[in-house]
Amino acid sequence: xxxxxxxxxxxxxxxxxxxxxxGFFSSQKETTTxxxxxxxxxxxxxxxxxxxxxxxxxxxITLQDDNKEASxxxxxxxxxxxxxxxxxxxxxxxxxxxxxxxxxxxxxxxTILPFIIxxxxxxxxxxxxxxxxxGVNNRAMTFGQSGAKLADDKRKKVTFKDVAGAYEAKEDxxxxxxxxxxxxxxxxMGAKIPRGVLLLGAPGTGKTLLARAVSGEAKVxxxxxxxxxxxxxxxxxxxxxxxxxxxxxxxxxxxLIFIDEIDAVGRQRGAGxxxxxxxxxQTLNQILVEMDGFDNQTNVIVIAATNRxxxxxxxxxxxxxxxxxxxxxxxxxxxxxxxxxxxxxDKPLEKDxxxxxxxxxxxxxxxxxxxxxxxxxxxxxAKANKKNIGSLAVLDSIERVLLGRERKSHILSDEEKxxxxxxxxxxxxxxxxLKHADPVHKISIISRGQAAGYTINLPKRDKKLQSYSEFIxxxxxxxxxxxxxxxxxxxxxxxxxxxLQRATATxxxxxxxxxxxxxxxxxxxxxxxxxxxxxxxxxxxxxxxxKTAETIDQEISNYINEALQTALRLIKEQKxxxxxxxxxxxxxxxxxxxEFGKLMA
Length: 601
Ligand code: ADP
Ligand code: MG
Ligand code: ZN
Hints:
Blueprint: H1 2-28, E1 33-34, H2 37-45, E2 49-55, E3 58-63, E4 68-72, H3 79-85, H4 90-95, E5 97-100, H5 105-142, E6 149-150, H6 167-181, H7 183-187, E7 196-201, H8 207-217, E8 222-226, H9 227-230, H10 237-252, E9 255-260, H11 263-266, H12 277-293, E10 300-306, E11 324-328, H13 333-344, H14 355-360, H15 367-383, H16 391-403, H17 414-433, E12 440-444, E13 454-457, H18 468-489, H19 497-512, E14 527-532, E15 536-541, H20 546-573, H21 575-588, E16 590-592, H22 593-600
Parallel strand pairs: 1-4, 2-5, 7-10, 7-11, 8-9, 9-10
Antiparallel strand pairs: 2-3, 3-4, 6-8, 12-13, 12-16, 14-15
Helix pairs in contact: 1-5, 10-12, 13-15, 15-16, 17-18, 17-20, 17-21, 18-19, 18-20, 19-20
Zinc ion (ZN) is lined by residues 423, 427, 481, 496, 499.
């Protein structure tokens, strides 16, 4: 609005300047003396006139003495007629040199100026409005554009050095960078340049980070877009954005396109019921079409990332599309230490902080969790006005990330504290006594996040596979809390509900997914269909009979029951040890691994 006003003001200013200049010029002409027509006639009769210049109604009279006069006549009447009408003899008229000139410019201009100004004004207004409208149009035109961001150098450049672990992924991506830099090297050997690389991995394992590293390493243009950015409210926009993205990319070739979170558009087609699935299908189809459309000369490589490979459309994974799949696992202990080292670089750690120990205590943490852990530690120490980050803060942050922050304000009553102490002691005691259970790492009755208390069990080393015995023992450990409450207080509280959920889920998986149950045998039960409807709704399709369903239910109950019996037996056998653990917990609130070992000895 301000802009419009400004433009108008400028427009008026120019108009004013122009008209004053014009006025100035036309007024300069009037230097001769003005006389009446009768006087001119008299002068002609007296032979004083040498010549007359006629310009429409204007007369410019030059006298014999070269003086000039100006006069006016009616424009319609010719000068000769006029003189004749005034009874001037014909010889006298012919003696005068009469010239009929052009209509005088200034006069003409001055006559039409009143028309020109409003006309100019209107034209200006129209032009101005057109521009405004065009602006809107332009914005509408960009709607179908991809909005892919070309990676810029403003952010700190990420290189492969900033990514710890993920060794295979880095190797594969280095190869891709190589392809882009020296395509000849590969094509001369008859090798086909891969079109797409799919990064698969759990959330926070560094997929986006790796892609940024590729952009930092490859000195080629790098287009970055998130899958969800393709999809707007209107059908067809996604597809046109894909087209636009690939068009831009082909122009910039050799280059890289990175589509983050591709599962937003790359879900299995035809699986959805929701209204938006048409749009997604069209977008996905367009991606497939574009990737097929690359000829061997087009040096564009598409990198995509997802944490849900199970929902991807198989057509995406076909050779010629995302034919390379790079799986990024959760980091193992060595990689965790390396990741911690990278993120500790810009943080002032005390000398006693042992990152190896932190790595040991964080199995199952993703790279993002580890980065978060050190960040939490830094915040904790900054709040305490410390200069450096100490070991305690770092270790405490592990639990913060794992369970949420401590809720010191959430004070348990004495009775609740006692129940929680026995509940946690139950978990700890059972896991201590079972061979396949993970060793107890820490017990606490300080509430964190949702939990009133917690017992942390850590595996001795990172595990990729889990056995039947481990599942059986872990269910007994989960029921340890329930069993303890039942044994010591005669009834159970809501505190055991989460344990029961987890135990039941484990039992169900043993039976229906892992084929570990004797009675039901090595097969799976139920097929998971993902409904692309209202987000993530998992719908299980039954592929078994009612009778089998009953057996499954029975088996699950059996597992839970056995686990409960194991827990109850152990707790009843070692009631005195339970009292000891609970006593220490009530007194100190937490028990670390070493102290627990001593208590149990
Ligand atoms: P994803 O895209 O896989 O969900 P991100 O790439 O966004 O995960 O990772 C989130 C953050 O976690 C990164 O910005 C980085 O700080 C940290 N991170 C994850 N993996 C690593 C790694 N391997 N090395 C260093 N930092 C990592
Ligand atoms: Mg990501
Ligand atoms: Zn519990």
